[in-house]
Design goal:
This protein is an alpha/beta fold and 439 residues long. It contains 17 helices and 19 strands.
Length: 439
């Protein structure tokens, strides 16, 4: 497989007169499954859609957003793998000098608040083309939120970006549903039922059944207690099985958050990571020295998604959710073998993990039918009595990867939850092999 088109010439070489989607991203174009843009573009391609990649466009005018002509279905916009403000500024609000997701690690290739800027430029280029925003920046700013850089509340990014739809969380299910609906001729203004999406509607229009109305934007600005209440309600409604829709009032409008999309099951997750990626950056970046971000992930394996760890500093809960899903042993071994055949592989698999490396599935059986507990944590203040702590399958996978021809060592760089390890009666064996073989 070749890289997806990055220019009009690439489109014409494929015989395309028009792209179905133009995917706009703040990162350089890296066709690797650790990059959300690569996953979604390859998924859409797998389902028969034509996707062009507009990576790090010139945002100073709308000209670059016309590079491929008018997309048939929509612009898909994200700021890249990292929130653009985190990408640009240190915790002390000093401008960073490097950007690992840009050619040669050079900073300055994307704007501040990239989702908003890109969306407005896309609207300027083609006023009537639907705009769908997503990725980490849009997902975590989908409702009113405290902004560290402004030291103030900011309203939903949907309103500032003037986008038609927001895909939050892991976007595979929602993006395909959006594509199918638009391809069927349904207007983007009518796409109000899709899980994993947010939209804007006027006051007086019908809200989804069981919808819960959050404190209004005006209330949030005037009361920290109302903001805390709103955040609590959002936290209690981030699981696909137990959540209800939420509506946040803004004057004469609502921003409505539909229930989250269901997490991908194992076979679906396997399929996502076994799509035909080029597994490296586009060759147009070679002269600049490539894209540094690939170095950490090029020879790593994503084994799971989601996390029930509940760490206070982490945003995974509100993006990937607390229900853990993992890839099969067979899929990880196939990708492991593929790594050994890649140029530059020297015998070292750098990671086999995810948000938490030693989680392999839902914390308990209840989560599969009823969703996660809304008022209890799985591991705090101590492991829940219903917790299923078992490292057996993970150990089997690590042992099998160690035996692959050409593999010298398999490292684990993702986080390990030691309280979960200690809750496993056989956890000592995992700890021994972790120390002996994987650090």
């Amino acid at each position: 497989m070749a890289f997806l088109p990055v220019s009009r010439a690439d489109m014409e070489a494929r015989g395309w007169e028009q792209a179905d989607f133009v995917l706009v991203t703040g990162d350089a174009y890296v066709d690797h499954p650790s990059f959300g843009s690569a996953i979604l573009s390859r998924m859409l391609e797998e389902h028969g859609y034509r996707v062009a990649i507009l990576a790090q466009p010139d945002w100073r005018s709308a000209a670059d957003f016309r590079r491929f002509g008018r997309p048939r279905l929509a612009f898909l916009i994200n700021s890249g793998n990292v929130d653009s403000m985190v990408n640009h500024f240190s915790v002390f609000k000093q401008r960073r000098k490097k950007d690992s997701y840009s050619p040669g690690g050079e900073a300055g290739h994307r704007p501040d608040r990239a989702v908003t800027v890109y969306s407005n430029r896309a609207r300027e280029a083609y006023k009537d083309v639907p705009i769908v925003i997503g990725g980490l920046e849009a997902s975590l700013r989908r409702l009113a939120h405290y902004d560290y850089w402004d030291d103030a509340l900011r309203r939903s990014v949907l309103l500032d970006a003037k986008a038609d739809l927001l895909s939050y969380g892991m976007g595979e299910r929602s993006i395909l549903a959006i594509a199918e609906a638009l391809d069927a001729g349904i207007a983007v203004q009518d796409l109000h039922w899709l899980p994993g999406t947010c939209y804007v509607t006027r006051r007086g229009e019908v809200l989804p059944p069981d919808c819960r109305v959050l404190p209004s934007w005006e209330e949030l600005q005037n009361s920290k207690e109302k903001y805390a209440e709103s955040f609590r309600i959002q936290y209690e409604n981030h699981d696909a099985l137990s959540a209800v829709p939420l509506a946040e009032p803004y004057g004469g409008r609502y921003v409505v958050q539909n229930v989250p999309a269901l997490p991908l099951e194992q076979a679906e997750l396997d399929a996502v990571y076994e799509l035909p990626y080029e597994r490296t950056y586009h060759p147009m970046y070679e002269a600049a020295g490539g894209v540094p971000a690939i170095q950490e992930v090029q020879f790593s394996l994503v084994a799971n998604r989601g996390c029930f760890g509940g760490c206070a500093f982490c945003a995974i809960t509100l993006h990937q959710g607390r229900q853990v899903r993992s890839r099969s042993k067979g899929s990880l071994l196939r990708e492991g073998k593929l790594l050994t055949e890649q140029p530059g592989f020297k015998g070292y698999i750098h990671d086999v993990g995810g948000p938490t490396a030693n989680f392999r599935g839902p914390a308990c059986k209840k989560q599969l039918k009823q969703g996660v507990c809304t008022h209890r944590d799985c591991l705090y203040p101590g492991p829940c009595p219903n917790l299923r702590a078992d490292h057996g399958e993970y150990l089997e996978i690590l042992r099998a990867l160690r035996e692959l021809p050409g593999v010298k060592k398999v490292f684990i760089r993702s986080g390990i939850r030691y309280d979960y390890l200690l809750a496993d009666p056989k956890g000592g064996r995992f700890l021994e092999e972790l120390c002996a073989h994987h650090v």
